[in-house]
Amino acid sequence: MMARPLPMALRSPSPRAQQHSQHEARSDETEAEEGSQTAATHTKPWTRWLGIVFALAVVGMLAWAARRVDWQAVLQALKSMPVDVMAMAAGVSLLSYLLYSAYDLIGRAWIGHKLAWWRVLSVTAVSYAFNLNLGMLVGGLGIRYRLYARLGLRGGQIGRILSMSVATNWLGYSLLAGGVFLFRQISPPADWHVSGTALQVVGAALGLTVAGYRALCGWSTRRSFPVRGHRVHLPSLNMALAQLALSSLNWLAIAVMLYLLLQGKVPFGLVLGTSLVAAVAGVLARLPAGLGVVEAVFVTVLASRLPEATVLAAVLVYRALYYLLPLLLATGGYLLIEARAPRAQTGATQPRAD
Predict the structure, then answer these.
(1) Per residue in 133-181, pLDDT tens?
(2) pLDDT tens-digit series, residues 40-70
């Protein structure tokens, strides 16, 4: 009886295949380091100084504005906020963290690593809390990279997970902001010097960007593109839809949280639009946690609808529940992951194609 040939999956790889696999592994390990070196090369010293000067100017303006606030009225508004409202807002905050943490589950499916789902959720939640409070470089990049590396992922794998997470976050933002701006759910204050028509144009551009991304993921025969010396790989259409769904739900959850803390005194569409504008303003200001910027945006946009003290009280409780409390928990979580991470684990798996 003739012996049947072994299936392809059980055959020993040829020397050429082994060399190709090793080459891919080395490329994967160095990809993130090369990306960081490229970013550092393209960063001009004068841009850093400009960013510092801009941040100092923003801090000065916020400090000047804070002197005008009636903090006694804010304290009174905080005392009068119902406990059940704060409890519901805390629950929505937890939901938002779970949704954001699920971004990296998409990355897990995309590259095919074998970390347990609960480890992925815990790493992402911890890094997200640090990201919100200390900035993208510390939380979104530094801590997440450190924890994933401690759990055995290679540099290239981590880089692809991070890029997927960033893309997911801003895809959902673009989808919601596009609709909010296009249908004029928020009217820019006069002192912003931005017309409603200009916002509609921005909204249309964001919507077209999302539609273009979906079209590329669904129907493009070319699955990767060169961008600034790197190859950007497209996920499948199902992954793109999952990105949009999770991110949109997360941004909606943040708006629901603020809507609850404002006790339903402002239309939800306006709260959503204001939270989206505040998020970008906080990023542009380059201040830790967008401190003072988010408050200023909400006070300015809602000035004609609610007293300043009421708005500030709601945003301060939002900060406590969404920023400070998670940061305390994340500090303990970070130490726990560091302590329990395997000591001698290497890369999880080779990245797999969609």
Answers:
(1) 988 888 778 899 999 999 999 988 999 999 999 999 999 999 999 999 9
(2) 444 456 555 655 555 555 555 555 555 566 7
Number of helical (H) and strand (E) elements in the chain, helices listed first:
14, 2
pTM value? 0.79
CA distances from 35 to 26, 31, 61, 106, 137 (A): 14, 6, 36, 22, 14
C-alpha dist (Å) from residue 195 to 133, 198, 207, 254, 293: 32, 5, 19, 26, 21
- Contacts of residue 223, defined as CB under 8 A and 6 or more positions apart, other chains included, come to 233, 234, 354
The residues facing 230 across adjacent strands are 227
CA distance 286 to 284: 5
Measure the CA–CA gap between 319 and 178, rounded to whole angstroms: 26
List the structure tokens of 118: 């609960």
Strands (E), the chain: 224-227, 230-233
Looking at residue 279, its amino acid is: A
